[in-house]
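--- STAGE predict ---
source: upstream dedup step, 1 unique chain passed
mode: sequence only
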Amino acid sequence: MLSLQACASALGNLSALVQPPRFEQVPGRQAEIRILGLNGAGVRIWTRVTNPNAFGVRLGTLKGTLFLDDSRAADAEFPLGLDLRARAESELPIDINVSFSDLPGLGGVARKVLAREAVLYRLDGTIGVDAANIGRDMLFGPMTLIRGEATVPIR
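--- STAGE serialize ---
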């Protein structure tokens, strides 16, 4: 019985060996804000996700809050299902819609977007990871996943 408890304890500690995937803005790909009428915008963050582990993981979920110029702008939840091989990376766009009319604290952000000025962004949240035999349904965070600067593309 004691050896079974020791094995269970050791397996539980193995999940502590799993590092969360890292997020960064893709170099050379500016995060974009697209105006969706006068009341809102869509934010696209070109993201590079890196698996720092020596084994593959599946990035299952991302749940977070987008901040624009330090004002809470929107909540987002994505079922990703992104498989990452050991020490591999993958690029993906993260799209979040923001409604200016529902968020009075974003008046300054709306003015910047309409004037095509850069806006600082930050995505805070949690990520769910599955590392197969090492640990399933592991949750990392809350933490800042990615931050940078977004602009309205000129067309």
